[in-house]
Amino acid sequence: MAQVSRARPGTAGLLVLMATTGALLAFGWQDGTPSKAFRNVGRMLLESREFPASALPAVATAVGLMHHLVLSAIWGALLMLIVRHFRGVAFVLAALLIATLFVALNLWLIPPIFGVGFAVVTSLARAIPFALAIAVALLVTPWASGVPEEHPAPAPLA
């Protein structure tokens, strides 16, 4: 009998991390500097603590990158905990809906409260690829988690 294994939140966290990092790098590359998003977030985080981030762009980029790595992995795991109970078409719809809601939250609610979010580094037009990247990461998590295949029971030894 095959075991039923749910998608692993840690795997989702890593997949969301990779998807959103790739999107941010692509947006930065399109704007002329691949690390632009990380540098901007790092500057905002450092300047909010009265650290002259403009004097050290490498430090600002590293802080922004670490901020993104930690938070996107945590959020990816949390989002998977919400959608992993669904199956089939409901799973696809839940992943699309939760990714869209998450991106909307990061565009309009989190930036005014915390000063850092997608609105800081991207526009509404760039929110669509972000939502799709997160949704695809959530959708492939069960496969990437190594959900076991059905194997016939071994024949007893005679």
Question: Gist?
Answer:
This protein is mainly α and 158 residues long. Helices cover 72% and strands 0% of the residues.
Secondary-structure blueprint:
Layout: H1 9-31, H2 36-47, H3 57-83, H4 88-108, H5 110-114, H6 118-121, H7 124-144
What distinguishing features does this structure have?
0% strand, elongated, 158 residues, mainly alpha
Explain this structure.
This protein is mainly α. The protein is 72% helix and 0% strand. The chain contains 7 helices and no strands. The chain has helices at 9-31, 36-47, 57-83, 88-108, 110-114, 118-121, 124-144. The chain is elongated and about 70 Å long. The mean pLDDT is 83.
- The rounded Rg comes to 19 Å
The count of helical stretches stands at 7
Shape: elongated
User: Would you list the SSEs in sequence order as H and E?
Assistant: HHHHHHH
- Percent in helix: over 70%
Termini, distance in Å? Answer: 21 Å
Please give the largest β-sheet.
Answer: none
Structural class: mainly alpha
Mean pLDDT: 83
Beta strand %: under 5%
Low-pLDDT stretches are none
Find the count of extended strands (DSSP E, 2+ residues). 0
